[in-house]
Amino acid sequence: MPYATLSYRWGPPKRALRLLHSTFDDFRGGQQRISDLPRTFLDAIVMARQLFIQYFWIDALCIVQDSDDDKAREIPQMRSIYSNAACNLAASTSDNPHGGLFRVRDTTAVAPGLIQAPSGALRDEMHHVVDMSYRDRQILGGPLHKRGWVFQERLLSTRVLYFGQSQIFWECLSELKCEGFPHGMPQSFRSTKSLEPLWEMHDANAAIIATTERSTARPVE
Predict the structure, then answer these.
(1) In the prediction, which pLDDT does 48 show?
(2) ∠ at Cα 208 (207, 213), nearest 5°?
(3) DSSP letters spanning 57-85
(4) 185 near 178, Cβ under 8 Å?
(5) E runs forming strands in 2-159
(6) What is the widest separation between alpha-carbon atoms in the chain?
(7) Integer distance in angstroms from the first to the last C-alpha of the chain?
(8) Beta bridge partners of residue 27, listed in sequence order
(9) Which positions of the chain have pLDDT values less than 50?
(10) How does pLDDT run across 7-16, given as a tens digit for each residue?
(11) Is 3 helix (H, G, I), strand (E, B) or coil?
């Protein structure tokens, strides 16, 4: 069954809603109401429904936090949990589970700048103007990505939706898109998940091997 995962910051332990031995029966029996979940969890559930994803994996609710045995079983599975998820939702700008995913923002502010090609150019067209820190400033600069665990969650997930302060970013194995660039960001902003560097390295190594073999080959007498 397809499921989604969530990357978020826990915040102060005293305020965190967690699955414990003492709350296990409440969760399992339905006494724990969805409406009582932290805002980030609620927003994530709303987003999963919009994506037609029925199941959600959240570490605080899927691992018994005061059980060493359960942690010993589940934590080694984090790699497969995130890599097999249909999508990972990243609360990039929230520093605790109560910060939520969504922000009130000016949607016109995310539109990239445009300049007209100068007269005499080969093609009379418009060009986007974007600074090289455009992605990192809006995603990696947020509080979420200062958490060590998120590094593996981000890289292992095949698809990630980053909920930033001013817009949402999408990253998968082949694409990096955002609301400012809905058809894909410029080539200089390659997805960190892209497999193209591996193929390029493979092709380069194959070319080197072929060249070496040709240069060392001897004619048969």
Answers:
(1) 94
(2) 100
(3) E-HHHHS-TT-HHHHHHHGGGHHHHHHTS
(4) yes
(5) 3-7, 55-57, 87-90, 113-116, 126-129
(6) 86
(7) 63
(8) none
(9) none
(10) 999 887 666 7
(11) strand
Q: How far apart are CA 191 and CA 113, in angstroms?
A: 22
- Residue 99 makes CB contacts below 8 A (sequence gap 6+) with 39, 40, 91, 93
What is the three-class DSSP state of 220? coil
Distance between CA atoms of 186 and 195, rounded to whole angstroms?
17
What type of residue sits at position 19? L
Distance CA 59, CA 8 (A): 10
8-52 pLDDT, tens digit per residue, is 998 876 667 888 899 888 888 877 788 889 999 999 999 999 999
CA of 85: how far to CAs of 53, 89, 105, 172, in Å? Answer: 10, 10, 29, 12
In angstroms, the CA 19 to CA 60 distance is 6
For residues 114 and 121, give the distance between their C-alpha atoms in angstroms, rounded to a whole number.
16
Distance between CA 183 and CA 212 in Å, rounded? 41
| Helices H / strands E in the chain, number of each | 8, 8
